[in-house]
Design a protein that fits this description.
This protein is of the alpha/beta class and about 600 residues long. It contains 20 helices and 26 strands. Bound molecules: fructose -6-phosphate (F6R). Fructose -6-phosphate binds next to helix 9 and helix 17.
Amino acid sequence: MCGIVGYTGVKPAAPILLEGLRRLEYRGYDSAGVCVGNDGALSVVKRAGKIKDLRAIVPKDLAGFWGIGHTRWATHGGVTDLNAHPHADCSGKITIAHNGIIENFAGLKEKLLSEDHLFLSETDSEVIAHLIESVYDGDLERAVKEALALLKGTYGIVVMHADEPGKVVGARNGSPLVLGIGEGEMFLASDVTAMMAYTKQVVYIEDGEVVTVQPSGFRTSDLHDNSITKKVEHIGWEIEEIEKQGFATYMEKEIFEQPEAILRAMRGRLDLEQATGHLGGLNLSSRELLNVERVKIVAAGTSFHAGIVGAYLLESIARIPATAELASEVRYRNPIVERGALHFVVSQSGETADTLYAMRELKRKGATVLGVCNVVGSTIARESDGGVYIHSGPEIAVASTKAFTSQMTVFHIFTLLMARMRNMSYEQGAQIAKELEAIPGYVSQILAEKEQIRALATKYSWAKDVLFLGRGINYPVALEGALKLKEISYIHAEGYSAAEIKHGPIARINERTPSVFLVPDDRLRDKVISNMKEVKARAGKVIAVCSQGDDEVASIADDTIQVPRVHEIVSPFVMVVPLQLFAYYCALELGRDVDQPRNLAKSVTVE
Ligand code: F6R
């Protein structure tokens, strides 16, 4: 969601800014722009549409060695060229690019209008340029600080001034900002993917900090001008990991990377000898873990679905009361932090505003909050009391796939660890550890059957409405299957507990509404079969994801996707992968932009 870049150095800025913006495309956006400074003049080029549209109108000879750029995801004002960033002040000497939302922009704008400032856009962001102009007296950094002190809301900004060549000022409050350190050049961006081609040395800017970069160096300080010393960190990802590597789309690549990603999430953590798990990053002693009386998991979207699986595992296997809740609800519910409760926040990006704010609210109330994140150095990872990286590698496609299976892997290992400290014997633990070890192999077997799933997607992509139905540990997988299908194919889909259909959704069943049933060979299989029969009795088409050789299910369903027969607690892995592929191939069949579906953003940094 919105991306900012900044550059100062010795190379032409425009190609570096455009390439940085291209790398940020995955975050989701609808317009883009750049501003390049040269000889005391700034040139702004911006437009609604994609980076390739912007590239087409950026003059090939646009000279200048410093600049800023932006991808906009519209919040205030429509998707128009004028609303695209960067925005300029009245003189055209100051330009800014902004992520976030300025909550008090209306009052500020009114005041600035009364002082004869001329506004060209409908955005909240433009007030920042005019505010800086109103206090500027030859020192851009100081003017930015003065202006920021008047703002309420969230921001990640980059600012430049025509009269201060080679200087870019960045600041952060609630929207991520990273500084990249090169040889005689500096980069600023919303995330490291924009700068990985040039440098791996980075500094994460925190809320309330301002960074001023020039080719020769940088300075970090707070709004009161106190200098802050920052730690330089090394990006662990390789540039190849953010390429498609021969796959048609990032989503396809990420689906097919899952066996390796799951293995990485397990590496060094699954102890087959002791039949337990090790999660060093939790920062909790065995005694503290033993004292945990309940677990509360907080997340959004797909991460929330992984959290429901986690809660199910912890209750049923480790016998620890556990719940999963939507972050957006937790924050405003005035949550109760109970003694003995351990909180997890789950977030692939580590930047999701709802999850971050919920975490801060819980911490404010004294909770111990652990993060389950993918992006190293992300805000949630840094602000949590400890946690576990899922080590999936960069997830670029908007629809989350490998992060989901890796998040589940972490919860499986945590459950094994907690269960072995409590009721679980060595023998039971060893059986579960063996099953967990086998997951990457099971997933590979399913991926090898992709053509069969593609054929089914072709057969059913006419549908306008699809129900996904599962029970027990596969109820959240049904939710996830529906989310995947609707977000990338735009086919309306709902996930329910299979038992729930008779409480409402069955009214939608007819020959035009297919249902996807998740029917692993578990305790609830016969119940789900009854639910399937209820749908068939109403002329509904049924696609069943079931265990290999389950002839009874095959005789009832119109179509089946047969997956390895596994232990119940491993079944979410073998159930979800076919659903990811089904959604992917349906979207391809319908000609959708799979990696960047309409209206969606990868990193949802506004509430
Ligand atoms: C769906 C999807 C979203 C995210 C949600 C939370 O495919 O990707 O639902 O899961 O926006 O994002 P993170 O995990 O980054 O907090």
